[in-house]
Fold this protein.
Amino acid sequence: INDGWYTELSPMWPGQGLSLKIKEILYRGKSDFQDVCVFESESMGTVLLLDGVIQATDRDEFSYQEMIAHIPMCALERPAKKVLVVGGGDGGVLRELARYPEVAEIHMAEIDKMVPEVSKKYFPEMAVGFTDPRVTLHICDGIKYVEDSDEGAYDLIIVDSSDPVGPAEVLFEKPFFEALHRAVAPGGIVCTQAESLWLHLDIIKALASMCKEVFVGGSVSYATTTIPTYPSGQIGMLVCAKARAEQGEGGTAPLDPRIPRQAEPGPLPKLGVAELQYYSHEVHAAAFVLPVFAKKGLQGC
Ligand code: AAT
């Protein structure tokens, strides 16, 4: 924070840093896990930082939150009934899941209780997700929560995690993915935040190969979205489908997540959830089409 400007610096994107002009700092605190800061920016609305890294801004959060929720939800063959969100303490992904009437239970495992508290105060449009009666919030380490879950307990698990420096480091390692694979039902999906093609092709490649080792008989695909306030303006997710239980013909073919199978979800006036702003079935299919350098870079993993 310098001369009224904030610059996002991290060893994960050396030599570059997005700058935003600050109107007013609204909150600065230190939780047991990270520095938490909220400021009003001149161009992007209210901004949430964890350890100095942008997690969400009013202006563009819908891109990431809609895509990480609706791509897997719409790719599933049957509507999800039980969903787990790991991380995601701002509530934005919960808001997106709330759009689906078929969902019966939404569990969240967020490590830091300060994130939902701050979000409820400064980001009402994201935190509205917490007011859905189907949501249960557990404050605990995501890996512990997933390891303690019953086998096949969830139709979908969304890992809305911060970058692999700090408390989220474990969420990028193999033991966590083995636990996720166990906790998701056959034919279900695990969808995790998977960083930027421009900056982290090596991380994505390693993550995708590891997921392929874990999701034997299933499928692993990278989907991309644009978002101006994440590093290099782009982020993606790995969509990992668990092999289906054998059920006769076609039962063993892995799910192709590029095909949307469930209807686009609508608004939810009761909770104050507006129309979708980014996701559509057209955008869903296009998200899996990668530029040549990325397709080449991820080949064979
Ligand atoms: N939807 C906003 C985007 C995020 S939030 C990431 C969340 O993951 C944070 O609330 C953080 O407290 C939580 N978190 C970190 N580690 C763990 C853990 N081990 N268990 C559970 N929750 C955890 C992601 C932004 C991506 C930024 C891209 N540069």
Q: What stands out?
A: The longest strand covers residues 19-30. The chain has a mean pLDDT of 96.
